[in-house]
C-alpha cells in the first residue's frame, strides 16, 4: 500500500444547534488510518489530518454513517473519480430477502453473510400486504406460480437486507443457489436454498438478478414506505447488538444463540445513532453508571442491530440470558450467557438489554415507533 494513498468522500453532518446540514470533503488515508476534513462551503480545513484507530476503509460506503470524533457523518457520495473507481468496484449492492420459511434460520444466514465478506448496510423485518407483494413481483404476474408465490410471501414476516461487497449481486446468487431448492440440494449441501428451502416457491431466500433490479428492490424496501415493521410491544423486551459486536461479525451468532434459547425475535432493524439519540436512549444510566459517557461513545460508534425479543416475562428472562454487565465477571460466574461469550469489557459487552421491567416497551418503541418514523 502506498503511504499517500487516499480516498475522498462527501459527508454530511446535521448541526442541530444551527438546524442545518453541513457538507464536508472527508479524506481517508488507509496507511495510518487517518482522516482529514474540509468544509465544502467555507473551503476551510475542518479537521487536520488525525489518526482515528477505529476507522476502516470498508466502513466508507455510500449511505453509511461514520462516527468521526463524536460527530455522526453520513457518507453521501464519492468525492473524486479515483475513489469512485477503486472503492465503487468493491461496493456493489444487492438485495437479499429472508423469506417466511427461513426466518427461524436468521442467525445462520446472517453468519453466512459475514463469513462471505459482505457488509450489511441495512436490514429490517417487515410484513408486506398482498398488494405490496403483487407489486414487488409484478414481472411474474402472468406466471402460473404467481398466486402461490404471493400467498407464501404474505404468510409471515420477511427480513430485507441490503448487502454491500465486491461482485455482490453474482456472489450472493451463487451462495443461495438455484431458484428450485431441490436443484440446489443436488448442486451442494452448502447452498443456502439447499439448507433452508423446500421447493421452487418455498426457497428461503431472494437475491437481485441484476444491477437494475437491485436498485429498484433496495429502494422498494429502504427508500419507500412499503411494508410495516413487525414490532408487537407485548411480552417483549429490547436487545441492542452493539456496534463493536456488529463490526466484529458476531451478530449472526448472537441471533442464533437467542433463537436456540427459545426466544422469538419479533422485530429487527439496523440503526445508526447520533449523539443526541444515544444520550437519550441511555438517559437512565446518566449519573448512575460510571461508564455512561463511554457507553454513549460506543453506541454512536457505528451501526447497531436492534431486536424486539419475545417470551413470557421477556424483560427479566432475557436480561438473565444476557448475563452480568461485565463480561469478565460473566465468564467466571455465568459462562454461557451472551456477554460471557461475545463481550469484551464493560462497555463493549456485546448487547444492551432492557434493565427495568417498566422500560421494556419504551425501549422497543424508541426504535420501532420513534426512530422508524
Ligand atoms: P425471481 O424473480 O426469478 O427470483 O423469482 C421470484 C420468485 O418466484 C422465486 O424466488 C420463487 O419463489 C418464485 N418462482 C420463480 N420461478 C418459479 C417456478 N418455476 N415455480 C414456482 N415458483 C417460482
From TrEMBL:
Q: Which GO terms describe its cellular component?
A: axonemal microtubule
Q: Does the keyword Membrane apply?
A: no
Q: Which residues bind ATP?
A: 99, 145, 173, 179, 193, 203
Keyword flag Hydrolase: yes
CDD domains linked: NDPk7B (cd04412)
- GO terms of biological process kind: CTP biosynthetic process; GTP biosynthetic process; UTP biosynthetic process
The DM10 domain is annotated at 3-91
- Active-site residue list: 206 (pros-phosphohistidine intermediate), 352 (pros-phosphohistidine intermediate)
**Mind listing the GO molecular function terms for this protein?**
ATP binding; hydrolase activity; nucleoside diphosphate kinase activity
Which InterPro entries does UniProt cross-reference here?
Answer: DM10_dom, DM10_NDK7, NDK-like_dom, NDK-like_dom_sf, NDPK7, NDPk7B, Nucleoside_diP_kinase
Name the UniProt record assigns to this protein:
DM10 domain-containing protein
Q: Which organism is it from?
A: Rotaria sordida
> Lineage of this protein's species?
Eukaryota, Metazoa, Spiralia, Gnathifera, Rotifera
